[in-house]
Amino acid sequence: QGCNMEHTGITLRFNVPVSRQQLCVSYPSARERERFMEAAYDRWVITLYVDDIPVRGTIAPPVEQNAVEVKDFSKVSIYTQFSFTIEYNKKRVVGVSLEMKSPTALDGPSLDVTYDVKWEKSEMDFVSRYEKVMESELFASKAHWLAIINSMAIVVVMVAIAARIVRKLLNADIQKYSTVLMDDGLDVELADIAAAESGWKQIREDVLRTPPFPLVLCSLIGFGNHLVLLVLFFVVATLAGNLYVTPGHLAKAFCVSSTCTSFFAGYYATGALCRMTGNLSTRNHIISSVLSIGGMLILGAVFFLPTNLLSSVAGSNLTISYSTIFKLLRVWALYCLPPGLLGSRVAKKLHENAKPQPCREVPRPIRVRFLTS
Fold first, then answer.
1. Which residue, among 55, 122, 69, 132, has the nearest Cα to 92 in the 3D structure?
2. In terms of pTM, does the model score above 0.70?
């Protein structure tokens, strides 16, 4: 169906050639013949994976439209032979190619599907085997430069508009503040009050006040920093070594990156909480660090678990077992949580004397202005 991977039943043994080995015999019904005809007319392709190397082949030769309209099965053929050519270097597979052969007309009673395998020695290194795959038409793609330039132009225009608005407001505020300070006829005490009631101090005292749920906000700050550092660390680790050579190295690199960057999740979450509220409660710091480190678990529980449940109900082979999910939770609790708690402890020690931003106890009422033409 294009979304699930199924085992073809083809058994390959290293450096053992195969010649015209029967895979299966199919007796298609009338409905199945029509579906084969539609697939052949639409030029459907199949993608097979041999030792994690993708290969692609068309299921049928080109079909004329007249044969599809009149349902002439004698003019529609299906390839019934898979011809594999596997290149190897020492004891490792470095390249795979697939050629579809033996077109068989659909008007026959059955389809005898066979395959053959040919092994060829190659001088290509195992670490370079994917370079040939990336150069093939399987991954051929064209950059949509018009869309990229259009998006960049929109971003530049929006940033310019926002910068112009902010600059205009700041210039007006600075001009007002400077006028009050340079007014010689105004009493000194009144000038100080006017200066205090305008400009940056007004913004600081009215806007930069503690939010209703500082614990949640600080946890999001820690999670954001953790996510950015995790991606950077993982990308650098991937570029530094050939992690794709051995299966499972990418997953291990991700776990190691998450463990190494969990310290900063607790550090930034607790530091922001100390600066914002001045609260040095151990309980709140533990909660903020756990929430910041467990942000991915929360996202996974919200988005991944329902999808995984639906795929298990549908019988998809892409479903992740619950034992694997339990192992991931155990890895998180044993390797990611302790560094995060350590980072929270360090941030608490460094911000012991932190004081929250002073602000008005009673928020200034916002004046409502109506636009008039």
1. 122
2. no
